[in-house]
Design brief:
Mean pLDDT: 91
Largest sheet: 3 strands, antiparallel
Low-confidence stretches: none
GO molecular function, one term: DNA binding
Order of helices and strands: HHEHHEEH
Radius of gyration: 15 Å
CATH class: Mainly Alpha
Protein name: DNA-binding HxlR family transcriptional regulator
Number of domains: 1
CATH architecture: Orthogonal Bundle
Strand order of the largest sheet: 1-3-2
Helix content: 40-55%
Keywords: DNA-binding
Shape: elongated
Number of strands: 3
Strand content: 15-25%
Distance between the termini: 27 Å
Length: 99
């Protein structure tokens, strides 16, 4: 299931963004991924949270709360898949696709 999740749209951007900061609140994440719709980012963050790839905490009152997200250890480990993909592409796909 992890491979299926990390292959979804905007997951890579979200994980790398959270890896570069201690924690970010929802609006900061949306601002850093302007091509994505807020609803899409919200669903993706919820999936990442459900799979324990990010953690979240809420601050404030119920009407005016901010949700902060941070990358978990599993999320950091998952970044290795993207790094492996880049290495494989560099090694084997520099002269076009392999058939």
């Amino acid at each position: 299931m992890i491979l299926k999740l990390i292959n979804k749209k905007h997951v890579k951007e979200i994980l790398y963004l959270l890896n570069s900061a201690d924690e970010l609140y929802f609006a900061e994440i949306c601002k850093n991924i302007p091509e994505a719709h807020n609803g899409s980012i919200n669903r993706t963050l919820q999936e990442l949270y459900d799979f324990k790839m990010v953690s979240k905490r809420e601050e404030g009152t119920t009407k005016l709360s901010k949700t902060f997200y941070s990358i978990s250890i599993l999320g950091m480990e998952s970044l290795k898949f993207y790094e492996l993909e880049e290495k494989l592409e560099e090694k084997y796909c520099t002269n076009g696709p392999i058939i």
